[in-house]
Amino acid sequence: MASSVIATHTSTLRIANGVIPVQTRTPIVYGQAAATLAHLASGRFTLGLGLSSEIIVGQWHGLPFAPSIQQMREAVQIIRMTAAGERVNFDGRFYRLKNFRLAIPPPSPAPRIYLAALGPRMCELAGEMADGVLLNWIPPAAMAASIARVEAGAKRAGRSLADVDVCVYVRTCVTDEQEPAREALARDITGYAIVNAYARFFADCGFAEEVESVNTAWKSGDRAGAVKGISERVLDGLGAVGPADACRAQLDAFRRSGATPVVLPFAPPGASARASMLGTFRAFP
To answer: What is the mean pLDDT of residues 35-51?
Structure first.
């Protein structure tokens, strides 16, 4: 709904969702939605897809969960076929479809597809078949390894790294009152560090000690202790908090890696949250 409103009330703004899990809707639904938004936005829409977690897929939606790269591969193939107006017949491991065809003319150009990537296999898949890759919760020091995997996937498909947009989310809060913002960021990171896939990734990025501390406290029921397990070096690596110049310096570290930083503003909860968010937006026009 929000994307539709933005698409119909703007003419140059690029629009993307970042990101939706392939497991909670069918590829046909996503293909139809992407085609509709591509029409409304006149080539300005990008569909962001990711693999979710057992908590979201299994517990929240009550659906079978399999963290399978193959499911993403099949979903992207079907979404592209659907948005292109092709008759969709597909016999895969995860999806078996017959005789679907879009009821509206296909958009031109077709919607772009970005894949949210964490581990090496998803990075390679993005390089192989997506228009872009969106990296998340990653420190600048780990960027080179992920980008190398994207490039490897691209080469395998006869493409180059230049054919794939490489972007990275950076949680950003421009503020002179850093402690509340850093506490909010620590709580956010904690929610990811207790998910197996992210826990493994954070450990691979050099934060194994913190991951162990967070999960030990969380499993014992000590939620506050889990948040305290997020160290200063984790906060400095995974976010940009502080005066505008300091935040720009952190974003520049990502740019030097070859990625395009995507500023994701956040603010600690409270009466000043709105003003804080607006301040961050205005610092990065």
So the answer is: 93
